[in-house]
Amino acid sequence: MRARAKKDAVTCPYCFAVIARQQIAYRCLGRAGRGVGCDPVLDKELAGYLGTQAGAVLPPVFTGRGARSQCPACSRESGRRVCPECHHELAPAYCDTPGRIVALVGAKNAGKSTYIAVLLHELRNRVGNELETSLVACDDRTIERYKRDFARPLFEQERLLPTTPSAATAPREPLVYLLSRRVKGRFGSRTEALTLVLFDTAGEDLRSRDVRDLHLKYLEAADAIIFLADPLELTDGAQESEPLDVLARVTEPLAQRQGGRIRVPVAVALTKIDALPLPRQSALHRSRTRSGALDADDRESVDAQVRALLHDWGAGDLDRYLDQHYEEYGLFGLSALGAMPREDKVGPGGVRPYRVEDPLLWLLHRFGMLDA
Ligand SMILES: Nc1nc2c(ncn2[C@@H]2O[C@H](COP(=O)(O)OP(=O)(O)OP(=O)(O)O)[C@@H](O)[C@H]2O)c(=O)[nH]1
Ligand SMILES: [Mg+2]
Ligand SMILES: [Zn+2]
Ligand SMILES: [Zn+2]
């Protein structure tokens, strides 16, 4: 397993290189604003990372020290920090408090894109207010892409999201957010953060071994994993379980690298809970009380309820597989849409999510960022 990020090391959330803090590089500000400064040139490292030269013609990268450093070519000071490996810009907030990396995976049609859209929306609004967290996008492209590919279609146009194209045909770039929170400790309060690195992976990519290796670096860098599964795939008694198959493909390489049970906590969430005929008194239908903390009793009953469902459906092998391979896992049930969609639109009541934040609350608690 990757050496746990030490205080003096930062993991680039784009290429996952582990960088000593003093090695974080700078990009010259160029001629922006005032006259003097370097001309833009093709940045080969960044172009390599992006897979295209578009957006990679920029003022040069240089090494230095401190929060700001002087460009050796033009003498202009710059505080714009970049990864020394892939040259992607690193947000100042991320350099200051690099959070634990949370990765998200799931099979095709598991509900990943919808979940990403709704989770971020909730963290911005209701859940963010309740927990007093702040959510900051770590780069401009994250902001643009979230609006264009997720928020606008789902919330404004109320259309379902299209199938995510494979990484083999479309460039793959994560949405990177820093979710931070003031945590009171014995010696005053401090800011702690989770870095949500959300690759909206195409489910089909995790099925092919080749492309899955692309995601391996991502999974190896993760401090926590959220695994989404479509319960309808588990209930239909198919002899080949797609969710388990994908989970195994994700788990095998991690297990091989580190030997023994995997220590990274994994939150396994059944999506589309609204589509299940559940008894009224089900914990999954009960709304979580909004207390600004993790409700341990509620957590236990949801975990137990999902486990019971899995066993009822004859999908107990998923539970056993998790137990064999992970030291710590939590079972969750959630609904991003809150109701069955009609054709390509969300239900008539709009997007009414429930329990989408539960896996994150558990992880926040797990990382000492939230009381129980
Ligand atoms: N009932 C219900 N259906 C949902 C929910 N979330 C997603 N769905 C359905 O599942 C379909 C797939 O959701 P996506 O979010 O696109 O799934 P994905 O995992 O991104 O799929 P790929 O990109 O193809 O891998 C949607 O078009 C909806 O029909 C939910 O909360 N409730
Ligand atoms: Mg998708
Ligand atoms: Zn990088
Ligand atoms: Zn310069």
TrEMBL record:
Read off the Pfam families from this record. DO-GTPase2
CDD domains, per this entry? Ras_like_GTPase (cd00882)
- Fetch the Gene3D superfamilies from UniProt: P-loop containing nucleotide triphosphate hydrolases
Q: Which InterPro entries match?
A: DO-GTPase2, P-loop_NTPase
Double-GTPase domain: from which residue to which, for each copy? 100-303
Report the protein name in the record.
Answer: Double-GTPase 2 domain-containing protein
Organism equals Actinocorallia longicatena
